[in-house]
Amino acid sequence: MRRFGEAVRADITYTPRPGVYAMLPLNGALLLTHQIEPEPEFQLPGGGVDPGESPLRALHREVYEETGWTIGAPRRIGAFRRFVYMPEYNLWAEKICTIYMARPVRRLGPPTEPGHTAVWMPAETAMDLLANEGERALLAQVVRG
């Protein structure tokens, strides 16, 4: 599996952290989330799969929490790994990031997760603004074929 981001450090024990993220295109735009902390950044909506939770259930939950939208017809389009420090959990993690393409179905309200804002933007713009190199690479692959 391809790795993006920082190199693996031999002096650190990383905890595996599976996560699911969604590309959500609609009418020529892509639905992203803007997260304020720990650093302000644009991201594909998504996050960690909780113990005992299926990846698809986690995808639906995370997209709703971070955007306020429900989704339909998710399909897996790729995966990558990142080795990072997660200050919100005080954890060094091997993030195993699985990316899905899904259809935004309905906005139920604002994001329920504090510090998140739903943002629509053209996919070409998102390729420049997404904070995560792996997300940018997969989006470029999808947009450019």
The low-confidence parts are none
Secondary-structure element order, N to C:
EEEEEEHEEEHH
Number of β-strand runs:
9
Biggest sheet overview: 5 strands, mixed
Largest sheet strand order: 1-7-8-2-6
Count the DSSP helices: 3
Rough outline:
globular
Q: What is the radius of gyration?
A: 15 Å
* Strand portion: over 45%
Helix percentage: 10-25%
Q: Tell me the structural class.
A: alpha+beta
Q: How would you summarize the topology of this molecule?
A:
Blueprint: E1 3-4, E2 15-23, E3 25-26, E4 29-35, E5 41-43, E6 46-48, H1 55-67, E7 69-86, E8 91-107, E9 116-122, H2 123-129, H3 133-144
Parallel strand pairs: 1-7, 2-8
Antiparallel strand pairs: 2-6, 3-4, 4-5, 4-9, 7-8
Helix pairs in contact: 2-3
Structure description:
- It is built from 3 helices and 9 strands; from the N terminus they run ββββββαβββαα.
- A 5-stranded mixed sheet has the order 1-7-8-2-6. Strands 3, 4, 5 and 9 form a 4-stranded antiparallel sheet that branches.
- The protein is an alpha+beta fold.
Summed up, what is this model?
By secondary structure, the protein is an alpha+beta fold. Helix content is 22%, strand content 47%.
Protein traits:
145 residues; 4-stranded antiparallel β-sheet; single chain; 47% strand; alpha+beta; 9 strands; 3 helices
